[in-house]
Amino acid sequence: MASSAALTRLSEWPRLKLANLPTPIRPLARLAEALGSPALDLLVKLDSETGFGLGGNKVRKLEFELAPDRLEGITCLITAGGPQSNHCRVTAAAAARLGLRCALIVNGPEPEAPTGNALLHRLFGAVIVTVPERQDRSTQLQSTAVDIELEGGHPLVIPIGASTGLGSLGYAAASIELFKQLTNQKPPPERTVVFVASSSCGTLAGLLLGISLLKLNHVLLVGVSADMSAAEIEERSKQIACEGADLLGWDGPLLTDSIKAIDDQVGDGYGLSTTASDEALRMFALHEGLVLDPTYTAKAAAGLISWVRTGMVSDLDRVVFLHTGGHPGLFT
């Protein structure tokens, strides 16, 4: 199938309309100046403003995972994540809008006084099933689905992060949206560098699929890891992108040389802030009025700042920070 046919199929793919699209894009001139690069073409794509359930990148992916044909006969949505999972938040909000039950498999003890996303999970009416460790979630996910079926219900299991081939189509579409917006702004630079937080890899995979369908050889996608090694991020992202391409019936080449994962901002581990991520969080707030979260976007922003300061990007580049949301994580 030609890429044009795959793009048409993507645009016509059934989805549940949740997000406010297109999300805005705007320059970060004051931040560029604060970083000592006033001539740098630095912008932000605000997927923090997708809107539904307090927004973020998970909304785009769930639009595809929760397409109307997949919801026929479904009585309960089940997914899993961490205690402050953004994906769990948006899944629970979607269940509330659809009038469905929601069960969330969450690792860690039940909090005495839930805050941030943990509070929102409960506010949206989700039933919380706790497990001791992250590696226990997948088994409990399937076990809970079986229990619901035995009770006469019909669950839809959504994998962690909605990071599947199907979910990645949300960010293939977002990639097309982004580069349409950029085309309307300025003549194309020598290179466009997009920074995005990466963990379950569905967002990065969708961006890769999108630029591949558009045949954009001048783009570099930088996935800044929140937990996994760079090699794991790249491998998983390419795998999910291939799954998305298969769904579209597209067998063209993925631009795998256009993806680079970095893991130098992970620090002591997932959800643990670093000196660099704390600085990034403050700089985005102070110079641009933008709120980041400590787990994902602050570390992605720290990666961007490091590249600017070390000359990994230059005034010949256009640099885009894809803000994937996660604001509730700041209030924990």
Could you tell me the mean pLDDT? Answer: 96
Q: Going across the major beta sheet, what is the strand order? A: 1-2-10-7-8-9
Give the name of the CATH architecture of the largest domain: 3-Layer(aba) Sandwich
Q: How would you sum up the global shape?
A: globular
Protein structure class: alpha/beta
Radius of gyration: 19 Å
Short summary:
The protein has eleven helices and ten strands.
Descriptive keywords:
globular, 332 residues, alpha/beta, Rossmann fold, 11 helices, 10 strands, six-stranded mixed sheet, four-stranded parallel sheet
How would you describe the overall organization of this protein?
With 332 residues, the protein is an alpha/beta fold. The chain has two domains: 3-57 and 164-331, Rossmann fold (3-Layer(aba) Sandwich), CATH 3.40.50; 67-157, Rossmann fold (3-Layer(aba) Sandwich), CATH 3.40.50. It contains eleven helices and ten strands. The strands form two sheets. A six-stranded mixed β-sheet has the order 1-2-10-7-8-9. A four-stranded parallel β-sheet has the order 5-4-3-6, sandwiched between helices. α3 (58-65) packs across α7, α4 packs parallel to α5 and α8 (202-214) packs across α9 (230-248). The longest helix is centred in the middle third of the chain and has 19 residues, at 165-183. The model has no long low-confidence stretch (mean pLDDT 96).
Q: How does the SSE layout of this entry go?
A:
Blueprint lengths: L2 H9 L13 E3 L1 H6 L6 E6 L11 H8 L10 E6 L4 H13 L2 E7 L8 H8 L3 E5 L5 H14 L4 E3 L7 H19 L7 E8 L3 H13 L4 E7 L4 H19 L10 E4 L12 H14 L8 H13 L7 E7 L9
Parallel strand pairs: 2-10, 3-4, 3-6, 4-5, 7-8, 7-10, 8-9
Antiparallel strand pairs: 1-2
